[in-house]
Amino acid sequence: MPELRKDPVLGRWVIISTERAKRPKDFKSSPEKKTVSPEACPFCPGNESATPPEIFAYRESNSKANSSGWTLRVIPNKFPALLIEGDINRRGEGIYDRMNGIGAHEVIIETSDHSMDLADLEINLFRNVIYAYQERMLDLKKDQRLRYVMIFKNFGAVAGASLEHTHSQLIATPVIPKRVIEEMDGARRYFEYRERCIFCDIVVQETKNRKRLISENNSFICICPFAPRFPFETWILPRNHISNFEDATKEELDDLASILKDCLLRLKKALNTPPYNYIIHTTPVTLKGIEFYHYHLEIIPVLTHIAGFEWGTGFYINPTGPEESASYLRNII
Amino acid sequence: MPELRKDPVLGRWVIISTERAKRPKDFKSSPEKKTVSPEACPFCPGNESATPPEIFAYRESNSKANSSGWTLRVIPNKFPALLIEGDINRRGEGIYDRMNGIGAHEVIIETSDHSMDLADLEINLFRNVIYAYQERMLDLKKDQRLRYVMIFKNFGAVAGASLEHTHSQLIATPVIPKRVIEEMDGARRYFEYRERCIFCDIVVQETKNRKRLISENNSFICICPFAPRFPFETWILPRNHISNFEDATKEELDDLASILKDCLLRLKKALNTPPYNYIIHTTPVTLKGIEFYHYHLEIIPVLTHIAGFEWGTGFYINPTGPEESASYLRNII
Fold first, then answer.
1. Which ipTM did the prediction report?
2. Which residues pair with A59 in a beta bridge?
3. A331 interface with B at CB cutoff 8 Å
4. Which domain covers residue A185, as residue numbers?
5. What is the pTM assigned to this prediction?
6. Contacts of B81 in chain A (CB under 8 A)
């Protein structure tokens, strides 16, 4: 019997399909081979002039900005979805609303090594990626026009990565995204009723029953959520209540780096280097110390197609239950 | 300068990206070749026993159910996402909610001709597809456990079609889908403020200014919407207010068949037989004569990838503005 399960935050039902059940081996991807030479890659050392001037970098103390000698580099996206210069200028057209595309669109080049994937990065370098996310968020928070800073990673062409050199992205928007409003509304309704943060309750329940738990450390748990949209969808949640990613302590960031790296390695091993997206879900930078919302990270391996049913309903048909996904990922060494 | 545009029903912003602007030729797909022989296809005449027994068919008057002699056949999905037999049995697991996967999942085999695509179907046969949609909806409406009937089509493997013989699907759910609730809520808010149906207002504005209009007939207009998620996203809206698809008259259904066929042919020509999804967005079958909501059909060619930004925000970055898409589609003979 297929089962309908409701995401407790968004009220989104997913169908865990038994008639179409798929096991991990049904999804094995073939890893995308890197085909661009470092000489031709705009994200490689020596080619710094091929990108807009850097905003931030971790680099050797005697090296100059926009030259080699870096281990991580943050640059404006050369083809930005939103532009940092200009006025928002909200205006109408009959019944419709529009505004200028003001915002920030940055690229975090995670390593100078073209051959490397994020999952395989040495832990000190991986930590730098997480530190850089927070640094950029703290900086962009100062721009009064921006309401939200979203950090995400697309790995693999079918997951939307247009360049193969490993990188993350940041987009800051002048409006709070629809999905963020929905999550915050859902979490607020739960808080009004129970006077507890729903994400804290998820942490308690998942830590106790353990059947969807993949791994844990001092600051975080890694789980397959109760109502996942996709096979092997995985969430990382802070154990302690913390609403804003930019307020995480260095110790927490180190723990996030270690559990995220571990999770990416498990997915890589389980699914043969699948394409994936991950997104940091956090409180809008204009708010602080929210008691009902709790930042977290969602990882979506790209193994299935979105089709008419998903577009029409906002529901998802998932052929692999989270207990099975979690058990498989948990038991990978 | 990129532009942010808001969907007036859902409040969803999309970024119409100018820095990444793409013209129709940048998207040309290569048509998927059919590789299965009619002998091996479960949807072909002569293989009726390979599917569950038919629910409905248009067939020669002297032919028998589940034998050849049909031009259209509706069958239960052999691997249904939801099952028709059983009780819903809502229940909890700590903070989570679940229920049994009760519902209907049917396949509309649009023609007996394996080589044919829907767009190329002779108009009388195309009309039968639309009639069958309505027939099935009217029948399933009688089942008190079902709250919503969604009709959709996936064309092409990357759009989620798992069999190449042209077909549509119907899924009836025991809950009203999230996306439908969002659309109805948005439309209700507009109605409360203006005392007019927002879809009627869209029809008026688009028919007047014409820059996003692709085609029109007595009963329908075909447009690229003001805030499309995707390049060449196309909507078909009834000119006159009608909330429920199942209440459309035969004349309206004939006009829908003709404008949809025309639209699919334009997309096929413009984009070299792209994969696509379409979905009928209609009022829940449990409601009737709603004054604020207006059924319509949304067509999404699959030309781009959904990535981290879209998953995290619920917003979309669209490299082709609707005025450009519409002008291109309008000018195809």
1. 0.94
2. A70
3. no
4. 3-330
5. 0.95
6. 2, 15, 17, 19-20, 309, 317
